Amino acid sequence: MFEAIVSLCLLSDPAVCRDVLIPGYESISVAECDAQLRANPPDLKLFLNEEPHGMAACAPVGDTLRFQQAARGVFVHRGAISDANPENEGDVANVAFVIGKSAVAVIDSGGSRRVSEQIYRAVRSETGLPVRYVVLTHMHPDHVLGASLFAQAGAEIVGHSGLARGLSDRSDAYMNRFQDLIGAAGFIGTQVVMPDIGVEKMLDLDLGDRVLHLRSWPNGHSINDLTVGDPTSGILFTGDLMFHEYTPALDGSVLGWQTVLTELQALPYHTIMPGHGGPILDWPDSAGPLNAYLALLISDTRSAIVRGDSLGDAVRVIGQSQAADWDLFDQFNPRNATVAFTELEWE
């Protein structure tokens, strides 16, 4: 198999370049790929952040992300239990795709364009149907920074009605942080794209004899969490409203997240894909550790406030009894404690 690529180079350092996938030109032979490029040349202006070096060309298909089949037509990938770095290139969040009879939906898009290229190739290895939708479960960069490739392939980007505002407010910070973590070379081609469709409450996406149920949630893990339910398989894609192994990251309301998690457990699904860990867990049994962690955050924070602890002192003790139960605990728990303390000191 062959695909179209173009070499992109940093505007700030033209010696740093990367071959970037141009979606839509996949072919069984280089001659067929070349013929498609001649008949329908790509608009290289779509790659706004870097300078194209030379023309688009055909090359053998590159690396593909590894997915496992969780159910008929459902494929899931487990991101690394790690922060983004040059080795994983931003592949630290779980990703899935669901195949219907007429179209495909991708759920979250990875933390860089390079990761999304590997997702795209994995989809193409399973089906030639169009990727009609990319559903972003919330605004955090490890879940959204690969979406531009699918937008360029013609997919509609779908998210919570508050996603556009969240991305507008934080996109520069997310881009700068992930470029620093991954490295400039690996980050080439990465862009933030805004959603085409905002979900106020609920929305169904029809993939052809397979309908996905999308639901937006109030302030919890973040201010724009969205879940995707697939009644055909019984799988609920929770995004970061559920964590497994990886320390939960609180960027919204600890009380709100506890309430949302209770509601999630009542939904009619027997299996979930969390935002991290898993990638497939029994539901609602697997909610226990996160329930316990959120309850601990709340109780420890309230105790610190009653004692009159300063924020600095409180952060050193809140949640610490679960330090051995979660990976990356020292990286995320101090921020969680800060957010919880800031919320609860005024209740």
Automatic annotation (TrEMBL):
Alphabetical UniProt keywords: Hydrolase
A GO biological-process term: antibiotic catabolic process
Pfam families, A to Z: Lactamase_B
InterPro entries linked: Metallo-B-lactamas, NDM-1-like, RibonucZ/Hydroxyglut_hydro, SoxH-rel_PQQ_2
Domain of life, per lineage: Bacteria
UniProt-listed NCBIfam families: SoxH_rel_PQQ_2
UniProt similarity note: Belongs to the metallo-beta-lactamase superfamily. Class-B beta-lactamase family.
Protein name: Quinoprotein relay system zinc metallohydrolase 2
Taxonomic classification: Bacteria, Pseudomonadati, Pseudomonadota, Alphaproteobacteria, Rhodobacterales
